[in-house]
Amino acid sequence: MSQMVKYIIPIAVLIVFWFLPAPEGLSANAWHFLAIFFAVVVGLVIEPVPAALIGMVGISLTAVLGLMGNSAKDNIAWALSGFSNTVIWLIFAAFMFALGYKKTGLGRRISLIMIKYMGKSSLGLGYAVAFSDLILAPFMPSNTARSAGTIFPIASNIPLIFDSTPDHDPRKLGSYISWVAIAITCVTSSMFLTALAPNLLAVDLIAKGTGNVISWSAWASIMLPLMIPLFLLTPWLVYVVYPPTQKKSPEAPAWAAEELKKLGSVTAKEYLMAGLAVLALVLWIFGKSFNMDSTTAAIAIVCVMVLANIISWDDVISNKAAFNVFIWFASLVAMASGLQKVGVLTWVGNTAEPYLMNMTPTALIISMLVLFYVIHYFFASSTAHTTALMPIFLAIAVKLLTPEQIIPFSILLAGSLGVMGIITPYGTGPSPIWYGAGYISQGRWWFLGLIFGGIYLAAIIIGSLIFI
């Protein structure tokens, strides 16, 4: 698709929907906002310009057209509302944690230690990659930074030791390591609230759509029991379904030991970074007991990281990835809140109710979870998926589920965002990196995605039967 076509498609979507008559029960003002919203989602999928800019264009156009109120003050207050959102600042702070892992070398050291002590067999290497991701996951909301930025540079060197390359004997080890890495990062992305940025965005949408605030511990109470078995089984399942021909790997621990020698002794900054990471996790779980918000804890610890010179102030203000996500998510939070403000979500709930009210609660819950999951085949961005669909599914749930069912359903819905990334070669941020490594063909990736996507979806469905 040419760049010009990518520009034309979102504009065409906007124009077509803008001039269509509004459906019965929806005001013209709400329909016009929905046209802009559709255009933004399409833009996020095909990305004619950076995603953050697409979001900014959406909120700017909405404010300029005065769709959020009768006064200029109302419109600019709405447009900037996302930038004061605590979840957005938590995401920004978590990016600084990821930078601290990278600058101190702690992330690389953790991965190499895992390989040194667990890498004597191919299965052991799979678990070494898995546990490296697990240790980093609670503190890295970007699974791209975690899997592609930290794990990939280390793990991609392991197959080369055994002369396994994309062009020469990829099944010897490279294919196995690649699939374990991407499958595991999808699992850990669902395991922890702070392991995937769209998780945090989804939690904010849940608060706005249902009035329920999902804490780190509430998320863990449902997702950990479901994800821990998947985490422990995944490297073994890959070993069974897509086995490496190289079963033993005595060279890998020796290579990791040599790399650790090059790193030298653990530095004071690494110890401090590890201590601050643990402190952050404790405060995220138990912060309410100290009357401390998760975002407050994260920002305070980032300040300590700068003062302790783990990262510099220049690192903070020059972190393009962090500011890009900050602007991107802030604008999407505003766009999503606009759906409620103009009455779109109320209309969706009222419209869907007659068609769904005759279903049993269990059938309704499972149907919505499956539909939300499978639709991800059409999305190359978990963020776009969250922004486009989460408010709609929540609006239907609020109408048809009891208050006791809403919280676990909301967590399972949001929790599926991580594991659904396994189904396609473009389903989550690190996928193009591991797919681009060349060890797994496109056809094989889709086949494995179908198998593991089905297994992971089954875990979500089982969770609905247990917790709702």
Describe this structure in words.
The chain is 74% helix and 0% strand. α11 runs parallel beside α17. It is an all-alpha fold. 50% of the residues are buried.
Helix content: over 70%
Number of strands: 0
Order of helices and strands: HHHHHHHHHHHHHHHHHHHHHHH
User: What structural class do helix, strand and pairing data support?
Assistant: mainly alpha
For the CA atoms, what is the radius of gyration? 23 Å
Provide a count of the helices. 23
Q: Give the overall form.
A: globular
Strand composition percent: under 5%
Keywords: Membrane, Transmembrane, Transmembrane helix
GO molecular function, one term: transmembrane transporter activity
Protein name: Sodium:sulfate symporter family protein
Main location: membrane
